[in-house]
Predict the structure.
Amino acid sequence: MNRFTYTRAADIQQAVHEITVDDTASFIAGGTNLIDLMKENVVRPSRLVDITRLPLDRIEMLDDGGLRLGALVTNADTAYNGHVERRYPLLSRAILSGASAQLRNMATNGGNLLQRTRCYYFYDTATPCNKRDPGAGCSAIDGFNRIHAILGTSDRCIAVHPSDMSVALAALEAVIQVTGDDGSRAIPIADFHRLPGDTPQVDTNLATGEIITSIDLPAKGFADHHAYVKVRDRASYTFALVSVAAALEMDHDTIIEARIAVGGVAHKPWRNPDAEAMLAGLQATKDHFEAVGDTIVRHAKGFGYNDFKIALTKRVVVRALQQAVEMRRNE
Ligand SMILES: Cc1cc2nc3c(=O)[nH]c(=O)nc-3n(C[C@H](O)[C@H](O)[C@H](O)COP(=O)(O)OP(=O)(O)OC[C@H]3O[C@@H](n4cnc5c(N)ncnc54)[C@H](O)[C@@H]3O)c2cc1C
Ligand code: SF4
């Protein structure tokens, strides 16, 4: 039995203070990931600071035309929000492709971004894992690595980030608003999650004590041409082997702007600016999409069991771009 204390934070300042003064304390929101990790003995916080009563549970319009998603709005309420469905359907689809209805009713937006990897060895405390126990070694590199990364890996860790929501947010170029002891700051989603490098135990650039207060979506939502394609081992209730969020701005058949974020392949949602730039000004053809897929996986590296992800990623990129082009024609 691991003992821990429980506190319910009355306001953001108290929540931040509780974590800042005790680096083994942890925020708890929906608890759908944290409680599992505690039950499996992967994390052992000394104190849980419940943030669910904080006033971060609203979705609001921003003056610049964007939309602010409170960190404590549930994944379900976000996906079914009228503004999100109408203006950011890519985000809605990505969220609804994840977990189950029951989990989405509990899971919060902040917690979704901060969920830990699903690497089997990370959860199995009998095996070495640099993310759980820095310096212990990585069991996945020479182990069963079917779900692991092919891009941005290091010799310390080849885990992937499991969130579907984050992949859509990467394509939409969301901004994460956080508050800590020193005040508030904004972190572009591209800088929020980290590659493993030499410190795979650190998943994000959130500083100790900082709380996510909201996720801000820019005005541009790519509602006319988008797709979220998720390939997984079964039809629901599981994580992506490879997923692609594609967002296109088009003038008839010509692509003006393309954004492509890939999930299930790296320690963070993966974007390749060179690949995206290749499509600007081009006709939306399969040949062009295949060239983009080739560019995205050019430096990909498999570890044996996950080699199939290289070819799969290319195909899912092409499929997502085709669906994004076709969506208006099919309505
Ligand atoms: C069976 C199963 C299947 C799943 N399938 C999918 C899937 O297919 N796709 C997918 O994307 N997800 C999936 N999930 C994951 C699920 O989406 C996450 O568990 C959930 O989003 C986490 O949110 P939460 O509010 O419950 O977080 P919690 O478990 O409460 O917290 C998670 C972490 O975030 C921290 N935290 C929470 N809120 C904040 C905040 N505002 N500021 C700072 N820190 C914070 C906590 O301290 C903790 O470290 C699945 C989960 C399960 C159990
Ligand atoms: S891939 Fe990362 S999380 Fe998995 S065993 Fe290796 S170090 Fe641990």
Q: What stands out?
A: The mean pLDDT is 97. The two ends are 56 Å apart (CA to CA). Residues 308-326 form the longest helix (19 residues).
